[in-house]
Amino acid sequence: MGKSKEVKKFLDNFSEKSFGKSKTKCEEQNICVFCHNVVRMEDFRDDLSRKEYGISGLCQKCQDDVFGV
Question: What are the structural domain ranges in the chain?
Answer without folding.
Answer: 3-67
